[in-house]
Amino acid sequence: MMAPQDFIPQIAQWVGTLDETFPGAQVKPYFAHWEVVHLLSLALLGGSSILLNLRLMGYGLTDAPPSEVRRGVAPWLHLGVFGIIFTGVLIGASNPDRLYTSEAFTAKMLCLVAALVLTYGVSLPTARSNGRLGPVAMIAGFVGLAIWGLGLAVFGTGKLINPGLWHVVTAAALVGLFVTRGLTRIIYLVGMGGLIIAQYVNTHIIIKPDDYARLDPTNKIYFGVFLAWILGAVIVQVITAGRGATGGPATRLFAFAALLVWVTTAAAGRWIAFA
Ligand code: HEM
């Protein structure tokens, strides 16, 4: 088990008092209101991150150089990050046992750290220098990837939460659709359509929808195949695009990760409720 209670059992008593003291006690009756602000912050931060990282991948606001896109989105990104952490701490304090016993929350916090490292250590500085990936950003990139990997491992092995990783694959699929070009995009789409139909037929017609013993492993295999297809298409696109004026393959792949790591954080946040 990878819930916070499993590796920091010493704080159990303190956690139990959080919703009886300031600020948890005051927030508790207005949990839903604060959660709305949590999600509005997510919209702000998500939108900013998508614009910034898609630009670094060579898609979207390509009329402006990455440094200009960065200048435009950075204040909103900062506001979104501040807002989501501020409201997260408040709603967390008002319902602390939920988080303390949640493996999804562990995954979420690991991914949040990775998202901060990849955003502030890689995407923003790389956009500032118009796609040039400096040595510090490169190190931050690998550190961010490693922490994200840990978060994904907890998410992927967590009981009753791992279907939440389909959100991440779906987001990756959409990004793949945006950034691929020409023949790569057509092959990618045809393959994706084929996979979607195959999975549906396999898991709704061939295997009966209540036969979980067979459905679970089958869906896991599809998960791997979808992932390989999407990553393959993005890697082919990124390599064939070569070294452009605003960054090469490494810049684009780190930007892809910096976008998806926020999606993983949000997906883990949503799946706190399901375990
Ligand atoms: C210190 C940081 C954070 C804390 C303590 C925190 C805490 C919480 C809590 C307590 C919930 C309600 C869980 C439940 O009862 O089901 C929640 C939900 C959620 N959080 Fe966070 N959060 C934080 C950061 C974030 C970040 C950075 C993101 C996104 C990138 C995020 C996205 C979400 C989402 C999508 C939900 C689900 C909302 C819903 O289903 O209604 N959170 N969070």
Description:
With 275 residues, the chain is an all-alpha fold. The chain has one domain (4-181, 241-274). Helix 8 runs parallel beside helix 12. The protein has helices at 4-7, 12-17, 24-27, 31-56, 66-94, 96-100, 103-128, 135-157, 165-179, 182-206, 212-240, 249-271. The model has no long low-confidence stretch (mean pLDDT 97). The site of protoporphyrin IX containing FE (HEM) has 21 residues, from helix 4, helix 5, helix 6 and helix 12.
Bulk shape: globular
In terms of per-residue confidence, which ranges show pLDDT below 50 for 5 or more consecutive residues?
Answer: none
Question: Biggest sheet: strands, sense, closure?
Answer: none
**Proportion in helices:** over 70%
**Structural class designation:** mainly alpha
Distance N to C terminus: 12 Å
Radius of gyration: 20 Å
What sequence of helices (H) and strands (E) makes up the elements?
HHHHHHHHHHHH
